[in-house]
Amino acid sequence: MISLLLVVLSSYLIGSIPFGIIVSKYFRGFDIRTQGSGNIGSTNAFRVLGWKLGLLVQILDISKGLGAVLLATYFFNGLPFHNATPFQDITVFRLMAGVAAVLGHVFTVFAGFKGGKGISTAVGMLVGIAPVEVGIAFGIFLLVLFISGYVSLGSIIGAIAFPMTMFLRENAFGVHITGYPTLIFFAIGISLFLLYTHRSNVERLLEKRESRFEKLRFLKFLSPGGDSR
User: Where along the chain do its domains lie?
Assistant: First the structure.
């Protein structure tokens, strides 16, 4: 039990590292929370700091989720309770650590419990658990981004695509996914949580007030009202 608590607490603290704030202060001399949307995540970092530093923040945020999973793998020595899921004990251990990292990113103790949206850290966690589904969801995210120019819209649709991809692979294409009966509900839960953290973005999208990255609209001719020339 002590090992589990230490790993979960460590994962939360890893997830809580506010890389957006650190990068903005170190490279630009200001707190990213005072610019753009005020969010410390990679979307606002791209908008405020430019694509190079924005990409750095995103990679670092992804590494938090992946780092938590690797930490759990290294220190795993069994579960202190009966595992009633179809997953291996080590997978449950990894999931708990990964979720703790995502919660740390969203509710960071180092920034008044106000962090990012959790997408990048969740991606890092899920890469080690469901890489195929993450890869497909990421591809859909990029497609939506390149068509619309909205990072938030791509993130929202990518989050929805994650459990849908898992469901279709198992039930429509006959691909056996180990632990699917439990994993699908976990995937839905993660997606609902990410949609909840993007609720303000949904509101701005509906009101057409969301910031758009025009330079990323490589496929804008496919969007309604886009340039078809």
Answer: 2-221
